[in-house]
């Protein structure tokens, strides 16, 4: 019989996240171990905490650790982690740059097929012509096994273009109005 006490998920997540924020140097390894556990609750809470890494420059190191350690994360665990970490707007652009320039990820077609929705969501936050071309180029290199992908990519590219257009046409008057 399992005598382990049950902790509500929101409390477990909060405790793990706060621990990661306060002491990432000692939290990372135990949280990585929990992320690989068979307990859906512990794994999910640990993945959320790992994504709360307080220094965004540590995120690529964390991603490499997650991929290198044994046993590897399952596809759902990997997807959960990336969904969580890409929600951080400060980390989003840096992680996109790291992810799209990392040769291991670029050559892992199965990982791209798993993460394409997450990457599209990350790209949907961009608002520059350079980023628009990067997104087009990056996804142009892969065959994604998902009927919804092409329509979703088109929507993301249109959203980026709409943001660019709005910034160019309305940006100056919005800045002037806010500065009064």
What would your notes on this structure say?
This protein has 180 residues and is an all-alpha fold. Helix content is 74%, strand content 0%. It has ten helices and no strands. α2 packs antiparallel against α3. The N and C termini lie far apart (68 Å). The model has no long low-confidence stretch (mean pLDDT 80).
Question: How is this fold's topology laid out?
Answer:
Layout: H1 9-22, H2 24-35, H3 40-51, H4 59-68, H5 75-86, H6 89-101, H7 103-106, H8 109-123, H9 129-140, H10 149-178
Helix pairs in contact: 1-2, 1-3, 2-3, 3-5, 5-8, 8-10, 9-10
If helices are DSSP runs of H or I spanning 4 or more residues, what is the number of helices?
Answer: 10
Mean pLDDT: 80
Number of distinct beta strands: 0
Radius of gyration, rounded?
19 Å
Show unreliable segments: none
N/C terminus separation: 68 Å
Shape: globular
Structural class: mainly alpha
Portion of residues in beta strands equals: under 5%
Please provide the ordered H/E string of secondary-structure elements.
HHHHHHHHHH
How many strands, what sense, and barrel or not for the largest sheet?
Answer: none
């Amino acid at each position: 019989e399992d005598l382990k006490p049950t902790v509500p998920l929101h409390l477990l997540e909060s405790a793990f996240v706060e621990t990661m924020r306060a002491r990432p140097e000692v939290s990372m390894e135990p949280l990585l171990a929990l992320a690989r556990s068979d307990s859906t609750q512990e794994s999910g809470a640990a993945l959320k905490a790992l994504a709360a890494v307080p220094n965004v420059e540590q995120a690529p190191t964390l991603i490499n650790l997650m991929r290198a350690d044994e046993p590897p994360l399952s596809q759902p665990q990997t997807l959960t982690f990336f969904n969580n970490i890409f929600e951080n707007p400060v980390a989003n652009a840096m992680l996109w740059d790291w992810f799209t320039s990392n040769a291991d990820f670029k050559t892992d077609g199965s990982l791209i097929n798993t993460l394409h929705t997450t990457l599209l969501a990350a790209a949907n936050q961009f608002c520059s012509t350079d980023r628009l071309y990067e997104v087009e180029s990056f996804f142009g290199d892969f065959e994604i096994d998902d009927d919804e992908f092409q329509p979703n990519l088109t929507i993301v590219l249109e959203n980026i273009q709409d943001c660019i257009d709005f910034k160019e046409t309305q940006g100056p008057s919005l800045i002037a109005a806010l500065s009064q």
